[in-house]
Design a protein that fits this description.
single chain, 613 residues, alpha+beta, four-stranded antiparallel beta sheet, two-stranded antiparallel sheet, 49% helix, globular
Length: 613
């Protein structure tokens, strides 16, 4: 990690190897470095790495130990005085493996990494935004998640001071551009005991891991917002994996350039296709959503290349530029930043920086509750940050807006499911779980593209449908007045009323999309693919056809909607024939079943207009 994912020559010091390879040295980060006599931003030496992350001792242990020996202390006492927390020898004596650090990796979107191939100024702006976003995410982890525990968890204390060693990498294992930082978080923090003396102990690593996703979304939101504000850019949604939430990429960066830098994706997809075939042969059915995630992990592990020999950044930049010029031409590569600024200016001119908190809370709560079932505040906060990234297209927003949206989502739509046990300590705020009353639509099947097998709708797609009725009901409640209802009590009441209506019609998911200029009724699968309706109205025409600008992935244009609906019906019929058993009769109320039969017995009126609500 300290040598760019490579292995340095035997007998060569880390500093010399980094200088020869042109790699930047590591940097100390976190508030906790001050307790070790270090300064944030200072260089990480090889000896400090060995002492801190190899032996669990003070980074200046050699000097401390010599001073104690000179004062007459014995060797064992002098060494013990430099140990941070429990000595690793005691842990190994219990036949346990000591965990001295956690690796948190931060990386921007692929389109920002490609954009950094331009001039040095653009690259420095992106790297500076990258560094500041990492610092912001680490500060949030320190303030919200860092705790130490002792006496088998009976003792706990907040410790907002982490010790982190960060190492910058510029490429992936194939040598293509991939800016990312490995942040080694030391599994030792300092607290004050009952006597007011400083004492080192272990982190509550489980708690820290639980907050990693929320910290990652904060990094992405902060990094993308700063870089795009500085360069005059904006983002658009790009669907990478069908059925999963899109990745917000820089508008104007061609998908071919993104795919060029993402060298492993095609290998992973090819391996995943073979693993999916073996799964179907073994189990007699296609993998579900959870099984697909597991197969994807195995495909990524199977296609992971071996470690490489690091190269200097200057050499890498020259090789990347030459490779891109040969593949795409001078006009595409040299004019990339200009095209991105033109596309960004068009989006910024039409996207309102205002965020409707009530609608945002509905969307966030629906996605989290449908995807997870039970959720904590950290899950809602992470989704609120994703929502801001999608809605504002990296325009600046009021500080604390993500926390406020999370608060409204829990207050308006969450129901606490964690019960307080009598006579026991009340759970902490981050240990309280909630549920919500969004009715989850029944799964549907989506036809595969490019010869791929059909797949079941994902939880994320069903979550988009679950929030649509409530959002439309809130808009309808505002329409008779001035078009806006800023009264918190009124908007909360409208949300609750709409939620109750949606809950009563669980078997009848909505089909209408609230979108100017698009009057056709859509199926649930198509609704799930639409960008948030209140944001789409402000987008340029070229971005109104769905959640992706990559035509090679999903062609969800109006003229193809009915065609895809037919494919879905055919795929559903094939799936039933594969199962070699009659399909189970759907649990439809009597009045709905009678209406359905009448529609099939009386064709003619209304045919060709798509499904009705």
């Amino acid at each position: 990690m300290a040598f760019g994912d490579g292995r340095r020559p035997v007998g060569q010091s880390l500093k010399d190897a980094q200088e020869v390879a042109g790699l930047p040295p590591g940097r100390w980060l976190g508030r906790g470095v001050a307790a070790l006599g270090l300064t944030e931003g200072a260089e990480v030496s090889e000896r400090q790495m060995e002492l801190v992350f190899g032996q669990g001792r003070h980074p200046d242990a050699d000097r401390i130990e010599r001073r104690l020996l000179d004062d007459g202390a014995d060797a064992a006492t002098a060494r013990l005085a430099t140990v941070l927390g429990q000595p690793i020898e005691e842990i190994e004596a219990r036949k346990q493996t000591p965990q001295l650090a956690l690796d948190f990796t931060f990386r921007p979107q692929a389109s920002l990494i490609v954009l950094a191939l331009g001039d040095d100024r653009t690259r420095r702006i992106i790297e500076r935004a990258h560094e500041r976003a990492i610092a912001k995410a680490l500060r949030w982890l320190e303030d919200e998640a860092a705790e130490t525990r002792w006496s088998s968890g009976r003792g706990r204390a907040k410790t907002p001071a982490l010790v982190v060693a960060a190492f910058r990498h510029f490429d992936n294992r194939d040598g293509f551009p991939l800016l990312h930082d490995h942040c080694l978080v030391l599994n030792r923090v300092q607290r004050w005991d009952d006597n007011g003396e400083p004492k080192w102990g272990a982190l509550d690593t489980t708690r820290l891991y639980r907050h990693v996703v929320a910290a990652g979304t904060l990094y992405t939101l902060a990094m993308t917002t700063e870089a795009c504000e500085e360069l005059g850019l904006a983002t658009v949604p790009r669907e990478v994996t069908p059925g999963l939430r899109p990745v917000m990429e820089i508008a104007g960066v061609d998908s071919e350039l993104i795919d060029w830098s993402s060298t492993r994706r095609q290998r992973i997809e090819d391996a995943l296709e073979g693993l999916t075939y073996k799964y179907a042969q073994k189990h007699g059915r296609l993998p579900g959503e959870q099984a697909r995630h597991g197969l994807g992990w195995w495909a990524a592990q199977d296609t992971r290349p071996e470690k490489k020999t690091p190269r200097p950044l200057k050499q890498l930049l020259a090789w990347w530029k030459a490779s891109a010029l040969l593949k795409f031409g001078k006009q595409v590569v040299d004019g990339l930043l200009h095209r991105c600024r033109v596309a960004g200016a068009a989006i910024r001119a039409r996207v309102d920086a205002h965020v409707d908190v009530v609608l945002a809370a509905v969307d966030v709560a629906a996605v989290v509750s449908t995807v997870r079932g039970k959720f904590a505040r950290r899950h809602v906060l992470a989704e609120a940050r994703r929502h801001l990234l999608e809605t504002l297209r990296v325009q600046e927003f009021t500080r604390g807006l993500d926390d406020y949206i999370a608060h409204r989502a829990l207050a308006d739509h969450g129901r606490q499911s964690t019960a307080v046990q009598p006579g026991r300590r009340a759970p902490a705020a981050d240990q309280i779980f909630y549920t919500a009353d969004f009715a989850e639509p029944d799964p549907w099947w989506i036809a595969g593209a490019d010869g791929k097998p059909p797949r079941e709708s994902s939880r994320y797609e069903r979550a988009r449908v679950a929030s649509l009725a409530v959002r439309n009901a809130i808009r309808a409640a505002r329409t008779p007045s001035s078009g806006r209802n800023d009264d918190p009590a009124a908007t909360a009441s409208a949300a609750a009323h709409a939620n109750d209506q949606h809950h009563d019609q669980a078997s009848d998911p909505p089909h209408a999309v609230d979108h100017p200029g698009r009057d056709a009724a859509l199926t649930p699968a198509q609704n799930a693919a639409a960008v948030q309706a209140h944001q789409q109205a402000a987008m340029p025409e070229e971005y109104l056809e769905g959640r992706t600008t990559d035509a090679a992935t999903w062609l969800r244009t109006p003229k193809n909607l009915e065609r895809y609906a037919a494919f879905t019906r055919e795929a559903d019929a094939r799936r039933r024939s594969y199962e070699d058993k009659p399909p189970a009769a759907p649990d439809v109320p009597a009045d709905r079943r009678q209406e359905h039969e009448q529609q099939h017995q009386q064709p003619g009126h209304g045919q060709g207009q798509g499904p009705r609500p």
